[in-house]
């Protein structure tokens, strides 16, 4: 077992206990109020929707977002959780069809301390991964290489969704 040294820095507690000022509007609540293409919404369900991440880790990175503004998964109803789980599976199928990735990262960051960029509206990330997608560019120059535009990614994923799930009526909002 490794012996860890402890660095006591009690002055950091002032930073840790402060809260971030709430935003005037939640971007995840605002997206469904706009056109699907403008908001990069792939699919609208009864309780949640799927949208491309506008700042993706990889091409094809989507988020499953409940319409209801709640900060954590335990605040969601059984119906919301069931639909979100179904949409995770369907997202993986659509991304596989459109991009043929080698694997996926699926997860949530609940709370600011866990890395949530939007910590007051829970959402699930589905990130396609390819062997070798984390290369020297990210390490040396803090630069992520994305080989396809958001518009083209949107088109490919919507097309894959339509072919797989034959749900044209649910797409056009």
Describe this structure in words.
- It is a single chain.
- This protein has a 5-stranded antiparallel beta sheet.
- It starts with 11 loop residues before the first helix and ends with a helix.
- It contains 7 helices and 5 strands, in the order αααβββαββααα.
- With 173 residues, the protein is of the alpha+beta class.
- The protein has one domain (23-167): 2-Layer Sandwich (HIT family, subunit A), CATH 3.30.428.10.
- 36% of the residues lie in helices and 14% in strands.
Number of alpha- plus pi-helical segments: 7
Q: Give the N-terminus to C-terminus distance in angstroms.
A: 57 Å
User: If strands are numbered along the chain, what order do they take across the biggest sheet?
Assistant: 1-2-3-5-4
Uncertain ranges = 169-173
**Total count of domains:** 1
Strand content: 5-15%
Estimated structural class: alpha+beta
SSE ordering:
HHHEEEHEEHHH
Count of β-strands? 5
Radius of gyration: 18 Å
CATH architecture assignment name: 2-Layer Sandwich
The level-1 CATH class? Alpha Beta
**Rounded mean pLDDT score:** 85
Largest sheet: 5 strands, antiparallel
What is the molecular shape?
globular
The CATH fourth-level homologous superfamily: HIT-like
């Amino acid at each position: 077992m490794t012996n860890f040294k402890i660095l006591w820095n009690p002055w950091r507690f002032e930073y840790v206990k402060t809260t971030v000022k709430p935003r005037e509007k939640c971007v995840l609540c605002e997206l469904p109020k706009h056109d699907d293409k403008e908001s990069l919404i792939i699919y609208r369900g009864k309780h949640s929707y799927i949208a491309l991440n506008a700042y993706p880790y990889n091409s094809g990175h989507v988020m499953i977002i409940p319409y209801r503004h709640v900060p954590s998964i335990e605040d969601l109803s059984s119906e919301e959780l069931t639909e979100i789980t179904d949409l995770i599976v369907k997202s993986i199928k659509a991304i596989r069809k459109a991009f043929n990735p080698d694997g996926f990262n699926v997860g949530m960051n609940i709370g600011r301390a866990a890395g949530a960029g939007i910590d007051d509206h829970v959402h699930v990330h589905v990130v396609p991964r390819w062997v070798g997608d984390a290369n020297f560019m990210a390490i040396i120059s803090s630069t992520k290489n994305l080989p396809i535009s958001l518009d083209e990614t949107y088109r490919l994923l919507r097309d894959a969704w339509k072919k797989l799930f034959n749900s044209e009526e649910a797409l056009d909002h």
